[in-house]
Amino acid sequence: MVNLPATPADLIPFLFAVITSHTFIQIILFPGFIHVTLVTAFLTWYERKIIARIQLRIGPLYAGGPGGILQPIADGVKLIFKEVMIPYKADKPLFLAIPLALVVMAALPFAVIPFGQNWVIANLDVGLVFVFAMISLFPLMILIFAWASNSKYPFLGGLRSLFQQVAYEIPMWISALSIVMLAGSLSLVDIVNAQARIWFIIPAFLSFIVFFISVMAELERLPFDLPTAEPELVAGWFTESSGAIFMLQFLALYMKMYLMSSLVTVLFLGGWWGPAFLPQPVWFIIKTLIVATFIIIPRAVFARIRVDMLIRIGWTRLLIVALVNVFLTVLLITSGLTAILGM
Amino acid sequence: MALNPWLTVIIWAIVVIALTGPMLTLPMFWSRRKPDPFRDMPFESGQVPQGEARHRLVMQYYPYLLMFVAFDVVGMFLFAWGMSFTKIPLYASFPVLLFLFLLAAPLGYALHLALRRENW
After folding, report:
1. A81 Cβ contact partners less than 8 Å away, ≥ 6 residues apart
2. Fewer CB atoms inside 10 A, N or C side of chain B?
3. End-to-end distance of chain B based on CA atoms, in angstroms?
4. A173 shares contact with chain B (CB less than 8 Å)
């Protein structure tokens, strides 16, 4: 263990020990920053490409590589060199700081997501609660940003975002509760280890459905994209953002999408487990991208639903299904079926 | 060499801030910044903005928000129970299950109130 520096003189050896540690290399390279941003950039291209295929278009094509795969880099360069416009009477410090906070909040939970047996930055024993805590800060940040931009459309979008994410947080937690009961732990590494024989999607299928729908709502994807509904609110809560601010928000949203897909993989699809001919992280990323595909496809297929319908579905249908599922899990464990299934 | 997991999370946060912060601060140096009263107006479908943007709104769906306050706490306690469900004897779980079962009555009443049209 590396101890915290007691005196200022210990600071230099402490920093040296941190930077040369195996964990720091992980933080920078694989489960860490470079991997997360690269996959996030890939997801933006992937979404445009998939939706183009569904709508019989071609999608991004000209930005180099096969199928315009360098499009995210072109977009990033374009946005970095654009002017940052700050609306009249906006709260400038909040307006500039919240996009950065969104990125940090979307990136922090990746510290506890296990990409393989040893490919995890920090194996917290309360990993799942940590992830949920970070996710539930999102609506608050969005509302603060919406208020700070001093415009009507962002404000309405921020309020809608608050309602929607609040309505779908409780079903999400309670559907994850049955996973916690089956695994007997809150550490994500332990949860994946408990799925070595059988994935939790089989004993907790109802919970998977509730969790997946709640993830779609938390991510504000269609059919739940009311906070950014284009026909009513121009671009929802990021109407006033431009240039670098828009880029950071976009990055945070897609990072959150990658985070939620990997959370579904960890909780239900057996995490890194798979046949041994591929390394564990590869299995994890393959499963995560499949989940992300199923999150993306409804955007091209479904229509948007109304606000009252959205909130009513979350509170009546999903919450009750999640609570029933808790009782089913209790029955499953006490009847000894889980022991027969080898969990 | 192993680090304390919470310390690692803090280092990860510092790394993320240090690497994404420049994306926000660097464009301030090279991007063109010409204040223009018309361009800095909040977007309102191309019209001149009317009134205050941060005005008071009718608080719709507030029964749902009240339910959130209750279920938030319930959810957190349930996590503490669910984690130790397989480790404690079954009769220790009966009060929690009874509580969850009884929760159906206030939940039903709250939904009845929330679904009434005059509360929208």
Report:
1. B27, B30, B31
2. N
3. 57
4. yes
Confidence at A257, pLDDT banded by 50, 70, 90 = very high
Å between A93 CA and nearest CA of chain B = 12
Determine the distance in angstroms separating the CA of B8 from the nearest CA of chain A, rounded to an integer. 6
3-class DSSP state of A203: coil
* CB pair distance less than 8 Å for B1 and A151: no
A262 class by beta-carbon count within 10 Å (0-12 exposed, 13-18 middle, 19+ buried) = buried
In this structure, what token pair is assigned to residue B58?
């009718």
Please, what's the b/e burial string for A190-200 (b: 16 or more CB within 10 A of its CB; e: otherwise)?
bbbbbbeebbb
Contact: A100, B21; criterion CB under 8 Å: yes
Residue type, B50: Q
Task: Please name the residue of chain B whose CA is at the shortest distance from the CA of residue A172.
Answer: B75
Q: How many CB atoms lie within 10 A of CB B75?
A: 20
Q: Is A100 helix (H, G, I), strand (E, B) or coil?
A: helix
Question: ipTM score of the complex?
Answer: 0.85
DSSP H or E run through A189:
helix A188-193
- Using the predicted structure, report yes or no on whether residue A290 has a pLDDT greater than 90: yes
- The pLDDT mean for chain A works out to 85
* Number of helices (H), then strands (E), in chain B: 4, 0
- Residues 6+ away with beta carbon under 8 Å from A196: A273
CA distances (Å), origin B77, targets A279, A306, B82: 38, 32, 9
pLDDT in tens, A108-136: 999 888 888 888 888 888 888 899 988 88
What is the number of CB-based contacts under 8 A between chain A and chain B? 201
Residues in chain A: 343
* Predicted local confidence at residue A212, as pLDDT: 92
- Asked if residue A30 lies in contact with residue A281, where contact means CB atoms within 8 angstroms, the answer is yes
